[in-house]
Queue: 4 jobs
Job 1
Amino acid sequence: MWQTCPDEHKFSNLESKMKLKAFLLKSGEGIIDLLRSIDNPKRFEILSLLLDGKETSFSNLLEDTSLQKSALSNHLALLTERNLIDKKSRGNYQISFFGEILLQRLTNTFIEAKVREQENLVHLFELIGKKMEYIDEELILSTENRNLILKIVKLLPMRVVSFHATDSKTPEDDAAKMVENWTKEKGLLDDPNRYQVFEFNNPDPQKDNPKYGYEFWIAVPKEFEVEDDQVIKEFSGGLYAVMSCRGVMNIGPTWKKLVQAVNNSEYTLTHDHQWLENNVSPDIKDHDKLRLDLYCPIKE
């Protein structure tokens, strides 16, 4: 379920990357050998059939796969040798912990790649003013339900320009207008993806008060010149669980799923650093198409 971003957490420095490189170069044959063990459609089917975790008999696998006895025996022997399945008593088979993890990681990678591929196609069609006649709704729904990829990210310390609207019934719009005016004046709208933009409630809305606050941060380098009257903050960074969602209406439900996922993990929620949202599609104005990364602060 958890995917750690190599370039942002465990492998965030050159030394760690060099260690990973050395490991991959030394273990390449073994990794390729493991991947080859599932590059056969029937072996992949066997693993998938066992994914429910129940012990399954040889005869049931024979019926489900339509294989000959000798062929099924050979496939089962190879998967057992690679520790992807376990052979139980009385000729029953069960997927191993490693086999289950491998399928989960492959599925996550596959869906993420397909989502990116589909988004690129949609974007290309939008550029030429056409709509796609076919969109894989099942893929989108299944991906949204599991909120794309859950990642562990370490944000490094950063210098941010703050835009803060308070005591308002529409603080998001008020703060967003400040950001738009400032970025337009600076010419930053010419390249909306160059600077990271984070946002969050400040303070959170209360049941008995319709007014609350909202703040935007724009991360800028140290040499970036900012007016004296503009608020500058130094963010110390921190460790985050990150989940993606599509559309403004999905922000609340996704936050709930993200918090639940953290509570069910080896990580712990913390208030030591700020809860954040990152709009990864700042050039998209349609609220139903916005792509947001939600950053939940955690500690190990």
Job 2
Amino acid sequence: MQRSYRMIAVQSRPLKRERTAAETTAAFLASGFPHDHLPTPVSPSLVQSERRAMKACRPLLLVGFVNVAAVAACAEPAPEPTRSPDPPAGIESALLPGFIIRGEPQSRRSLTTRMAELGVPGVSVAVLIDGEIGWARGYGLADVESRRPVTGNTLFQAASISKPVAALAALQLVEEGRVDLDADVNTYLKRWRVPANEWTAEAPVTLRGLLTHRAGLSVSGFPGYGPDAAVPDATGVLDGHGNTDPVRVVMTPGERWRYSGGGYTVMQQLVTDVRGEPFAAVLRKHVLDPIGMIRSTYEQPIPDGRRDDIAKGYRPDGEAVIGGWHTYPEQAAAGLWTTPSELALYAREVQRAWRGESALVITEALAREMLTPDEDSWGLGPGISEDGERFRHGGSNQGFRSTFTAYIYGDDGVFVMTNSDSGSDLAREIAITVADAYGWSGPRPREFVPVDLAAEVRGRYVGTYVVAERGIEFEVSLEERGLALSWRGDGAVLWALNDSTYFDVEDGREVRFSTDEDGIALVLGTLRAPRAGSGPSR
């Protein structure tokens, strides 16, 4: 079902009075929903009928004027559709799969069944409908040992979803004229500077490059620090004094996309230096409180007084992360503690700013630039869907997986947080099912159409692939129909989509084989593993 939008004519609407944090929170979060959900969910059939009535109006409202008579004619309600599951019950009982394989059978399973199958102790979900929470609910356990349940107030580590929220703090400096998006960041850095090398001689590292992952910087992600580990500050992380390599420019800035949590740590240091305050305090004052994210925090480690309702993280084997969770001094990249409902506040503020309805953090012009995708479908913080309709991000910390998708042209979104390394598939399935239930354009299950390749074609990728910085080795061998991939005692069967791209038949993850003058490399998400002993490919 194709989504229809209730669009507005941006130029014809005055800027609304900015709500205080207290007003925003009172109106949006109700009483903190101690019973795991908000009042009766908004009817998806009503939402769909209203949006269908406005679909024909969209071309009129996208232009710089409003034809009042035409819009009034469009405002007549459409017949209510017959297909409408009753969230959350319909969603809870029949999750859509994250992907389908053409020609292969598929089934829908309940949320609790999928939690058990994947070994996910707890999950929290919030759904934004027309700018308000339609429903929000916790499932399962925040702490398996104590049997403490997940509630709507339970804090989870947002992991990389920290990035788009933190990006607002940097963009606010741009709004204030204190930082130029396209200037050399060394202009603003004080306690640490991007080291010069052959790559920076060709182009400078800019804030735009940091936010869009095009700064050419190393270190894709961070493992965090256990309870007994010495934790460096941000400058120590940047210079490699912790458990990751130094953050350095490793290709020409601006040349191509390379996901870099290290780049966001540079941004963190820039914000800290320009504001002259600790990063968590800056985010509290300039982003979280104005938006109303009063329970959320970038404090690392999280203070003892905030630990009453925190989800513990769990590994794939079901064991709790030692200490319950890791500490992340890379606050901008991975350090946010929050709830799905407060992430919805972030998304709603971005949506309102994009339409010129709010300027609590940034104004319309910068919000529109933030959500304008570059050639790699990335905005200034969030990723942008291929159709340009949604902004989104996922997160992966030790023991936590999360995802969100929100609509640029509407007031909707879905936000899912889990306390398990095995939670990615569940989070995506929930998001897909919610979108389907409300008739949104996405996300949708991905359809794979496998192709049969000769053994000699597949065989060119057989070998050992190494991610040196993480100590990971992948073994690739031939399998009856495709390839077999194994690592650290785990394994997967890969079927081909074309001669260089494969997918895992169990979880749908895509694996690419990249070939250049240095040989062949296996690419899995943000990981790139060159083949051991690989020279130029034959």
Job 3
Amino acid sequence: MNYYNYFTEIEETFIRRRGKNLLLSPLDWALIESWQEREVPLHIVLRGIEKVFDLVDQQPARKRSVKSLFYCKEEIEAQFSEWLESRVGANGAAEPAGTEAIDGEDAPAKGELFSAPAIDAHLRSAGDALRSAHGRAAGELAEALERVLARLTELENAGLVPEKLEDALEKLDALLDESLLQTDAAARLKPEIEKHLAGYRAKMEKDVFARTFDLMLLKRLREQAEIPRLSLFYL
């Protein structure tokens, strides 16, 4: 997927439907970056934006207020989940209508996303990265990585269906997140994240701001520690 086109097409579609020359905020760009890193197909993002604005256009003009791409996030995530589920079945399953790639690139083959070889490769790659991170870590983070590695080895041999495996991996990701937030690196990065988000605190609900803060902080912490996400959604 072309990195430049991914960002610019999303921006252009949002601005076109917004109807005003409203530039995307740093938070919007961070959201797009997270989709790009997770390889959310461009056509899924664009279709989600179009659907949200189609619904907004049906409302009275005084109630229309879409100032951020975050307004479209829930719809895009829902469509991405449906797209993923459509590829979990056996190869040769019928292709759901409307999943053609708008950006002209081929979508992954049916059943390819959560195929056994893809899952095995993902777990091996994650295990290798975690072992390297464990060698550099200390304290509670090192202990958490050791526990996660032991559990990951069990999961590699358990033969779980993707849905149950995903549940287990999400719990391991949560354990790593909790440990990362307790590190000295988190304390050092917090002022930087607070400064970056300062202009948005008053515009966001308290819980939304807190979640956004943690997501940005965890993204930086994982990058620094070179700890990958384990979820199958990061395949």
Job 4
Amino acid sequence: MPFIPTRFIHASNLRLDHQAQGVGAVSTESQTILEDCTLDTFSHLIDACREHEIDFLLLSGNSFIADDFSIRARIALIEGFQKLAADQIQVFIVPGQHDPLSAWDLQYNWPANITFLSPQDRDVIDILREDETIATLQILGSAHRKYSQPLKLNQRNQLFNKQEERALSIGLIAANLPTDHSDTHGESTQSIPLSLSDEYLPAEWQSEESNEISVDYLALCKGTQRHTFEMHPGVAHHPGTAQGLNFGEHEQNGVTLVTVGTEAQLEQRTLRIASVRWLVLELNLQPELSRAQLIQHMQESLLSQIRGHHEKLWMVRWQFQGSGELFDSLRSFKHQSSLSNELALAVKERLQVGIEQSFYLKPEIRELRETHSTLSQLFQAQLEQFKSETQLPLKQ
């Protein structure tokens, strides 16, 4: 089969209409943005699919949270898929841990461009463009299905062998693997580590006697962080989450645009489509640092961040480590609020994005040691006093 260039977007953990966690008190405007952020991000995803003229969209788990029973999530999915259908863009949906197949209401008349897959499926699906196969898609197994066909990743895939050009083959490990919780503008290229750890595979695939399966792109679903692994020379990839929902998901958010061109090279680009960015910014406060100097450092740290095209709000957590009078004063909520307001006014005209700030204070290691030493001494003194008081009646 001659090799055919193709382009698709791989997205995961959309979690439509699921709400952010660990937010605290925010303004009414910020609260509205936070409530709608996953829906806005999905709208940006649909726009990106049309803008890049992709052949298909691959959703690999947790498109919504079934336990939320969200009507808004369902409406967003239907309207988004209808827009893609109008542009003849196919959508392949693999249910995840939080959006099982039963929650998708398969009795509903979904648009004709939608294909649902399940962990039980073992057939190879041909993805067509004008009656020509441009890629194949196959569920290779899941962590909870011991009869799944084993896969060995130490193979040399044929996609990059120009002697045998063919359609892209996509394998997918179904969801239900254990989840793992743990600032970039626009688009970026993902670096590729050298190997795929066994922790990302079902246990039965970690045997040396595993059979080899030829896949050029292995779609993973593991937690909310991005992962890319070389497969000599194909790739195994998990796009993470399109929109972070807490400070533990601040590092890399986005969806992945995968392009296979005429030169048989697989290119991955991260598209940043989130409307809310979570930032954790660290500063070291020396004892001699003044308030004016601190505000200057904070301002420089904020302004060094480049605003993403779709970003409306930055959720900023300041992590301060240090000691001194200024550091100690920031234990007060009143002083934190005053500092936050002053900084917001200073950067308002230049930042052009809403910000909500919180503070986390971490004493210096030396101070922690001294505190630990003082507590130990106090405990020892109390222990000796207790011994003395309890032994006294016996002596009498």
